[in-house]
Amino acid sequence: MKNWNLFLLSALLILPAAAQQPPVCQTVTADQIGADGLNTAAIQAKLDACGAGTKQVSVELSAAKGSSFASGALYVSSNVVLWLDAGVVLNASTNPADFQRSAISPTKACDSSSAPPACGTLNADETGCQALISSCKSTNAGVGGPGTIEGHGWSPLTGGANTGTTWWALAGAAKAGNYVQSLNAPKMINFQQSTGISLSGFTIHNAPLVHILLGRANGANVTQVTIVTPTPDHTTSAFPYNSDGMDLSGSSNIQVDRLDFTDGDDNIAMEAGGGGPVNNITVTNSTFRAGHGLSIGSETNSGATNVTANNIRFIGTDNGLRIKSDMSKGGLVDSIQYSDICMTSVGNPIVIDPNYSTATGNLLPLYKNVEIDGMWADGGSLTLKAFAGQPPLSLTLNNVRTTTSATSRPPTPTSARYPTPTFPSRSPFRKPRASPSRNRKPPRPRPPTSNPTAAPRSDWAPADRPAPP
Predict the structure, then answer these.
(1) pTM of the model
(2) What letters, b where the CB count within 10 A reaches 16 and e where it falls short, cover 155-175?
(3) Is residue 457 part of a domain?
(4) How many domains are there within the chain?
(5) Is the torsion defined by CA of 322, 285, 141, 104 positive or negative?
(6) Helix, strand or coil for residue 397?
(7) 68 located within any domain
(8) Helix or strand or coil: residue 286?
(9) For 117, left (φ over 0), alpha (ψ -120 to 50), or beta?
(10) Is residue 108 one of the residues assigned to a domain?
(11) Which residue has the higher pLDDT, 16 or 51?
């Protein structure tokens, strides 16, 4: 047998070049504190002052006079990037009133028309809170920099009906009640109906709920973002309910690269429901740790098409590659390509399931042209199903291998990062076929980047890909 080249997927973090900061328009320092003890007013005033321009600029949170900022809801306008300097920590307020949505919220053009419930409560309607950082119908807005956003999901609330209770305890109560009522808590970042979004370089810790939501977005670059929820100093026996890493809802032309996500629900969820279809999504060179994996669904009734995931590591996730839906929200999932995937301690490396729940309806899931080309896992269960009465599942598996070992079951998460796993010392993939099958489609062109001036990625060279013997 011929020798194989080393397959360079490992648990070591990539150390990419720092993201490029747009020209500074305004600077905010930590000593600019309002009567409420927060930096909200100072930051928002600078964001508003820079929002009238036609070229992208940044509002910089500077560590020059202290690294700790505290804020309620912030709004980012077109052509403005909120920039977190190295060492800066932007702490989300623990008073739900600082995120309360109202008829005069700056996001009102993108918000639900229903009367908002109280932020910080459980309610059948979960639209009561603004996010820590929001944008609505903007162009070329974003968040960047090497700083950290601290969500304080672990902190007791300092106001409202549930004063003294943590966000995560309320989330647990919603789960215990079988989600009849949902938690009204702020997302960390929520960009709606926007184009040219840029999210880069920062870290999010301990979000109360969803970390990042891009709703009905058209064109976004998400790169070098790290999520750790919970952090080791706030480890909990049960991960926070519904704390998705990033939700792409009804969004198109999204490039995602060099992420490192640890969270309590889907690492990434692509949702094609009432917000519209999901298409032209590319996820590359990323690591997913604790969480529910890389998911399409469960809402697919508007269609999810042209999704590519390449060079992805899963370490201790519940699931790896996941497509999920049911009769109440099923639809077409088509042209999905996964390649160069490596997994360790993953419970379910592949889950393709049209019966995600027992909900009834007439929106039947249909999965077509799903391809996995090059995948290795050290154990776990596989689910490969189509919906009864629909055409058979159209799935191509090429160079897919699972093995059984003592580490094939996911450990109970007790810290934000798993130990360095042992990946195979030789390429787990067989020699590629001499020619593609008749069913394989030629590679699709990648969607245009929303940041054409971004520096090329030198840390993921073609040599990092597995080579034939």
Answers:
(1) 0.85
(2) bebeebebeeebbbbbbbebe
(3) no
(4) 1
(5) positive
(6) strand
(7) yes
(8) strand
(9) beta
(10) yes
(11) 51
Question: Of 410, 231, 429, 383, which Cα lies nearest the Cα of 315?
Answer: 410
Helical H segments across 82-147, by residue range: none
> Residues 309, 342: contact at Cβ < 8 Å?
no
- Report DSSP state, residue 199: E
**Can you list the positions of beta strands (E) in 240-303?**
246-249, 252-257, 260-262, 268-271, 278-288, 294-296
User: How high is the pLDDT of residue 60?
Assistant: 98
Q: Is the dihedral of CA 68, 69, 72, 75 positive or negative?
A: negative
Query: Is 371 part of any domain?
Result: yes
Beta bridge partners of 286: 312
Q: 81 to each of 77, 190, 200, 416, 428, how far by Cα in Å?
A: 8, 14, 10, 28, 42
**φ/ψ of residue 280, rounded to 5:** 55, 65
DSSP tag of 301? T
Instruction: Give the DSSP per-residue string, 11-67.
Output: SSPP-PPPPPPPPEEEEEETT---TTS-SHHHHHHHHHHTTT-SS-EEEEEE-BTBS
Asked if the peptide bond before residue 298 counts as cis, ω within 30 degrees of 0, the response is yes
Alpha-carbon distance of 119 to 95, in angstroms, equals 9
CB atoms near residue 448 (< 10 Å): 11
pLDDT at 432: 41
Q: Supply the range of the domain harboring residue 93.
A: 24-451
Question: Cα separation of 469 and 461, whole Å?
Answer: 19
Alpha carbons 72 and 160: distance in angstroms, whole number: 14
Structure tokens at 420: 């360095």
Reply yes or no on whether the pLDDT at 417 is more than 90. no
Q: CA 265, CA 267: separation in Å to the nearest integer?
A: 6
- Read off the CATH number of the domain in which 133 is found: 2.160.20.10
pLDDT of residue 404: 66
